[in-house]
Amino acid sequence: MGGDPGQELFLSYAREVARQSDIVEVGIPFSDPIADGPSIQASGVRSLLSGTRVRRVIDWCSELSGSTPVVVMCYYNTIHRMGEEAFASSLVDAGVSGLIVPDLPLEEGSSLRRICARMSVDNILLASPSTGQERARRIASSTRGFLYVVSRYGTTGEGTSLPVQAVELVRSYRQISTLPVAVGFGISSPAHVSTLAAAGADGVVVGSAIVSRIGAGQTPGEVGKFVASLRGSTLRAAAIS
Predict the structure, then answer these.
(1) Residue 59 known to be catalytic
(2) CB 125 within 8 A of CB 148
């Protein structure tokens, strides 16, 4: 989460996580994060209270993107306030590779997708367990960079076990996607990563398990070791954090 656990410390954590990952996802804090559970909500509150603003997060991304591909995650209100063209342009200037907007449905995102495609920013789309087969195919054909598969119903958050449908979701989406398939929501242990990799996932997205450790006061080095343990458990997946 951009700006957490404070503007002075954020880059120390982000650089350590990026060092252990193939892609680093940076969130822009928002007051109403409808896709996020308690850990990321708390992280966003800490960031906002420290004075973090949108353009500052994008500036931080420019400091990370030279060594590791950066994907920005934010809610559509943030983009709408700045304007789609201006927002995408700011990502290009910062060297950002991709954009995830979890509250922008496929049917309403064509304008942003066109702008991102023109500016060579991958607009990464999400598919969930409730996505019907025909709509899943449209999402898989419209996403860029990779297909983000949501492993469970509900919001983000650490899970003690993988949802029963996660493995089958990976297999089904692998059949319809020509791009890499990455799985997120509830992925929080090396065992989770190993299971998903064995099922054919190309990547895993880990957020809550990282920001909760930051919130608990772990050092950047300790958080980095946790990310390294996730990556070390992969069979063929690239760890996305």
Answers:
(1) no
(2) yes
CA-CA distances (angstroms) from residue 44 to 50, 78, 108, 121, 222? 10, 14, 26, 24, 21
CATH of 10-240, one of 3.40.50.970, 3.40.50.720, 3.30.1360.120, 3.20.20.70: 3.20.20.70
pLDDT band at 148 (very low <50, low <70, confident <90, very high): very high
H/E segment holding residue 12:
helix 10-19
pLDDT of residue 155: 82
The reply to whether 25 belongs to the active site is yes
Strand-pair category, 147-150 with 126-127:
parallel
Sign of the torsion formed by the C-alpha atoms of 197, 202, 205 and 206: positive
Q: Which residue in the list 4, 8, 32, 36 is annotated as catalytic?
A: 36
**Rounded to an integer, what distance in angstroms lies between the CA atom of residue 224 and that of residue 16?**
5
With contact defined as beta carbons under 8 Å apart, do 160 and 136 qualify? no
**Residue tagged active-site, from 25, 122, 158, 202:** 25
Q: For the chain, give the percent of residues with pLDDT over 70.
A: 97
The domain segmentation of the chain, as residue ranges, is: 10-240
